[in-house]
Each structure stands twice: as C-alpha cells, then as structure tokens.
C-alpha cells in the first residue's frame, strides 16, 4: 500500500445520480486522507434500508447528488492522515456511521453515544475538517458527496478516524461487516437501551435484519416469549431460528395487533421494538406494552412528516418510549465487547447473510432488498 499513500487513487464506485435511478458503476478519484482522516480499502459491504431509503430519495431534504451511498462494511486501512495514531496501514477495521471522538460531553457521558462532532447526520455530505469532499469523477472531476460519514459503495473511501473501529485481523471481516450497522443496532437496542431482563416478554414490529437482531439479543438475554409482527410471512421461518415463537401478520388479522398481543400475553409485553419505519406500527408497539412497566424502543427510519401518534397523558400509564441509534453502543469503546460475544457464539451472524454477490451486481442487491427477498446481501469487492 506504500505506493498509493499520499496519492490520489482511481477506483470503481457505485454512484447515485438521482432519486431512484440505477446506481452507475464508474471510475472515481479518491483523495488522500487529511488530518485525523483514514483512507480505507473496502473488502465487503452490504445494503440496509437506510441506504435503500436514501437511494429512493424518500426524504427530499436529505437528497444530494451525485453521491456514494453505503455505510455497512469492513475493510483494511490503506493510509492515515496526520494525527491518526490508533491505527496504521494494513489494520482491519469497521467503518461506523456514527462516531466517537472521546472528548466531547456526550462521549464522556455513560449511556450516551451520539458524539457532538461525528454523530450520524443524513444531511451531512462533506468531510468535517474542511467542508470538502474526497471523491471526484475520473472523467470530468465532478465532486461526489459523502453519505453517513462512510460512503462504502466504493473500493476506496475516506472516513474520519473517529468513525472507524479497529478489529483483530483474525476475525472474519465478511461477518464483522454486519456489526457496522444492522446487527449492532438490533442487539444493542435489546441489551443497552431496553436492557431486557431474563424471563421477560418481547414484541418486535418488522422482521428485517434489525428486527431479527433484536430477537437474537432478546433470546440471548433469556426472554421467555418473543412475538414477531410482519406483513411478509416469508420472514417467519428465519424468525423461529432467532427465538421468535409467535407470529402475527397484520394483513391476516381482523383485530388490531396490540389486541392480538394482549390475547397472547395478559396485560401485554414488557418490551416492544418498532423496526418497520411505520407510524401505525409505532402506535401498535406502544399499545402492546404492559402498563406500569412497558418500554417501547423506536428503531425504524421514518421519512413521513407525521408526528408521534401518542397523547402525552398515555405516558402517565407507566409506559415509556425511546429511540436508539447504533443500539446505544459507543463504537470505539463498546463495540469490541459485542464482537467478542459474536465470536463466542452468543450471537449468530451467519443467519443474517441471505445472499452474496460481487460488488458490480449492486443494483441487483438493491432490488432484492427492495422486494423483501433479502435480509443482508453481502457484496464482495
């Protein structure tokens, strides 16, 4: 890698030129990293619904083109900028969409993980240090915007060092890539945010990768019953593998989902998780919890301008609602614990990889997820 350090690298990237348009595989120039930045060679990346939502342009205010999407990945450090001391060329790393500077008030506070400088921001499209991009088209030098601190739909990318977690080179990067977003978000919501207790009951609305990761976390914590809710029954068999014992398809029920849950568990569940990005699902998740002890955790991405469908007085019934980013994990200081738990078999990462394709088939992978046929499609460079 020494021959490329300090130089512009030309590589292949999947570029989004407009909302819903096919990603264009083209040559891009990637500048060297500046102070406290790192340039990575991406080896594996996958697509989550946040990428899908951005690609479709569901939130007009967040649209910026051309742009390199992608944020769930694993790779190797190609070079580091001035001031980067905790990693070097050749290190195996995970890029993380929400960072940890270790110095701000949020980073220093226990239980908080949204760094003041490097927290996830879908509106952000350039680097923190100088407000500029590190990507340009090779054909005419057009600037290309960044996405969620990472932009992993490229063979090489430049990321702030605060948004990178170093991992042991013996760990399988293809599996570790899942921990840079979806699995960590779901498991962490169960462990860190809800703090599920042994013997408790859980309802999960939306059985995509995040919802199933919540179930894995709940199972590992000893939940006595886990209920899965989804309009796609094809997801139910995989749900059984992560400990879900009861399933509800809202399209096949003549009752509201929370009423069905009350029939299964008297009084409702202790914990519910909204992973569908649906206001209606959020309302049902809240109502499905037991008064006095119920906790609802919001995980789905909501692009609708609708507000919370809850009256303030309902909170006096002893139910609470909160949201979670990256499962409440501080990336640099707490993610290594989850990695070790996965290596010990506490969390099964294999079941989340439903498809594997070469990177140049990224548009096929996008369609698989869009059609609900894929959980995680791992793209290999």
From TrEMBL:
Enzyme class label: oxidoreductase
SUPFAM superfamilies per the UniProt record, alphabetical: GroES-like (SSF50129), NAD(P)-binding Rossmann-fold domains (SSF51735)
Catalytic reactions on record: a secondary alcohol + NAD(+) = a ketone + NADH + H(+); a primary alcohol + NAD(+) = an aldehyde + NADH + H(+)
InterPro entries with a match to the protein in the record: ADH-like_C, ADH-like_N, ADH_Zn_CS, GroES-like_sf, NAD(P)-bd_dom_sf
The keyword Flavoprotein appears for this protein: no
GO molecular function: alcohol dehydrogenase (NAD+) activity; S-(hydroxymethyl)glutathione dehydrogenase [NAD(P)+] activity; zinc ion binding
Protein name: alcohol dehydrogenase
Lineage, uppermost ranks: Eukaryota, Viridiplantae, Streptophyta, Embryophyta, Tracheophyta
